[in-house]
Each structure stands twice: as C-alpha cells, then as structure tokens.
Design a protein that fits this description.
This protein is of the alpha/beta class and 227 residues long. It is built from 9 helices and 7 strands, in the order αβαβααβαβαβαβαβα. The protein has a single domain, classed as Alpha-Beta Barrel (TIM Barrel). Strands 1, 2, 3, 6 and 7 form a 5-stranded parallel β-sheet that branches. It is globular and about 65 Å long. It binds zinc ion.
Length: 227
Amino acid sequence: MRVRHLALGAGLAWAAYTWGAHLLTPACVWRGRRADRRIALTFDDGPDPAWTPRVLDLLAAGRVRGSFFLVGARAARAPELVRRMAAEGHEVASHGWSHRSLWLCGPRRTAEEVGRAHELLTALTGYEPRHFRPPWGMVNAALFAALRRHGERCVFWSIQPEGRRPEPAEAQARRVLARAHPGAIVDLHDAEGTPGAPARLLAALPAMLDGLRGAGYDLVTVAELLA
Ligand SMILES: [Zn+2]
C-alpha cells in the first residue's frame, strides 16, 4: 500500500513537473507583433553536414536570413557550419545540447542541456544565443530558471508545416502560405528528426520564399521579429 502511495506521489510530482510546466508556456514567445508585415523562418535540429549547406545556399541565393535552432552536440561536430551561419547574418539559437525531451530530464540535466549548448554556441559565434526552442516542444518546470540564467527566451512557433508525420513538400508550402500572418514564426527542419524532413524542406523552400515575399512579407530572424 505504501509503495503504491509512493508511486502515485512520484507520478503526480512528475505530472506537475512536465505537464504542469506547460501552464507557463504563455510566457514563451509564439509569434511577433501583429502590426508588422514580417515573418521569421526558423530551422530546427541542425546543423546537418549534408543538408544544412544546401539550405544556406538557397537562403543566400534568395537573400533571406533566418534563425537556426541548433542541437549543441551536432554543432560541436560541424563548427564551420555554425560560423558560416553567423557570418551570413543568420541568427544562431539553441535547441538544447542533445535533443532529449525535457520531459525526461531532471533539473540538473535540464540545466546542462541549456548551459552546455549556450556555452558552445557563444564560443563558435562570438555572441550569446538569446532564444531557445525546446525539443519536441516539451518543457519542464526547471527550464525557465535555466533560461533566465543564460538570458534566453523560450520560442515556439505559430506555423508548423510538418510535425512528426511526414508532409509532402507542396503541401508544406501551401500550408505556410495559407496560414501566413504578420508576426508569424514558421517552424522548419534542416536535419532529420522526422525521416526525410530536410529533403522535403529543400523542395518546399523556394515556393515558400517566393510566396511569402509575393504576399508582401519581409523575412527576418526571430531576434529582428521580436526587437
Ligand atoms: Zn527538434
């Protein structure tokens, strides 16, 4: 009986730490001001040595800058790509160290996920990352203090053309253009999380860029969108 009560207590504590922390997400950023006809494209899960350079080439050709939410461990393996992003005017931001869901991280591991990525990205770019996107969009109660310590803000998105289920490139482009709104933050993936995601992004990106600019939107970084 006592064991069952303990298990129940631990379960409730875990639920408060994970599910409960989602009550704090209104304090996170979901979009920018409605007054400005600006949209931020954001790229998660990289850098990927094969795909990210092709995404950067496409953005350079279109003279578009965006925000890259990098996985620290991947950034450590591709430092030249992180430097290239910074040199080309993109915003380098944090997606944690290992992409482990924060629902599976205690307070100490959460602080490490935030702190280790923060330090590495700062060393590679010469500036401190100001924005953090939680892997899988999942937060816990320890995250917000860790972010405050490093001066990072939690950023979600207002348009996500592909989640965990693969969506064809044309459908993704259509969805972004249909849902585009002033201040939108678009969540894209330049590395594998959902299988094949970067290839679909590359196929969808030209139509997204043309369509959004054709609709009169300026494409900016998250830092610019929220400035
Ligand atoms: Zn991710």
